[in-house]
Structure formats: structure tokens, C-alpha cells
């Protein structure tokens, strides 16, 4: 059997039914963790991912949870602990992307409010709940975006602000939880080929040209970075932001 650094651990991956979340859930299962994932509406797809996790010889559960609702986010952690008995790893992956220029004639405030609720308030709620039940050696990783460092296109200021908030929280939370032996880090993506940002389409060539490597990243490459940060070899890494961006921020 291959080395499984996360054997016996329990991980929660929000938004784990697709894209980076799905790849991360499967990678953590490969590394030996029992994995809980969340979804909002795609129950069939979530069950499929859970089945693929179990095929790796570990336990899996899929929970319906809308991260835009802080109460649901907090209750989620209770459900995970009830099902698995503990929580060692939290990957804050769920997120949405909404654009809108500051000088637009009309603003879709409902969409903007939901973006903030999912990308910031929901992450805070889940992390607060997880921090209460994690023990020494706990790992928290939030999936951010290079948009948190720069806004390369018009109309993404609100999205960029939500991702910048996550890196700020990461630094602060690392100070809060460091004395308890819990690490907190962030991984920032650029152009990763997912349903939200496929590597085909009207803007794909532009995005490729902005990366030093000249290509899109794969969800599995994000998952590899996350797997390192939640593993035993990253025990002295906290408060850090790792760019998995193909050189976008070079």
C-alpha cells in the first residue's frame, strides 16, 4: 500500500462536488483521509464524488449546505463531527464569481450580496465552527484567487475584494490558532480549468497569455498544493499564501 500521510484524519471540503473541490476531495482520500463534501443543488454529482472517494477505501459523506447562510455553515461542522467523530482538516473551497463595474448604470445587489456571503461570511462561519472542534495538528486551508492581489480586468473589484479578505483572515487566524498547534493557510489560483472558468471560450487565450507557463492549470495541481499544506510536512507553514498560478503574478 502506498504511503497515506492523512490516514485516520477527517477532512471537510466545501464545494467538493466539482472543480477544485472535487479534485481536492479525491486527493485527500488518496492520502488516506475520510472526507466530507458539501453541495448546494447538485446532489447527484455530489453522491457520485462521494462514491469515488469510498472506492479509495475511506469513508465519505455529502452534505447539502448553502454557505451563503451562516447558520447552515455553522451547523455543517456539527453534522460532520456527528458522522465522523472528529474534524482535523477544513478546506474552504466553495465560492462564486460575480462581475460588475463600479460605474455600471445598474447593480445586481442580490448577486453581489450573495458573493460576499459565500466568499467571505460563509468562510468565516465555517472556520469559526471548525476551530472550536479541531485539536492540535488541525489544518485550515482556504482557496483564494490571484484576484485578491490584483485586478487584471475591469469589473472584478467586488470579487477581488472578497478574495483579498480571505488572505487577510488567513494571516489573522494563523495568529489566533497558532498557540493551539492549528495551521491556517491560503492557496491562490489563477486560470484553473473548471466549469466556472473552462480552458475553452472567448477569454481562454487571453488568460493563457497572461501566465508565464502559457497554459491553464488543472484542478489536480491545486489539489496537490492543498494536500501539502494539510499534510504533516507542512507543520511549520502557517499564515502563508501560496500562488498556484502558472506565473500569473510573476
UniProtKB/TrEMBL annotation:
Transmembrane segments: none annotated. InterPro entries: KR_dom, NAD(P)-bd_dom_sf, SDR_fam. Keywords: Oxidoreductase. GO terms for molecular function: oxidoreductase activity, acting on the CH-OH group of donors, NAD or NADP as acceptor. SUPFAM superfamilies: NAD(P)-binding Rossmann-fold domains. Residues 9-195 form the Ketoreductase domain. Belongs to the short-chain dehydrogenases/reductases (SDR) family. This is Oxidoreductase.
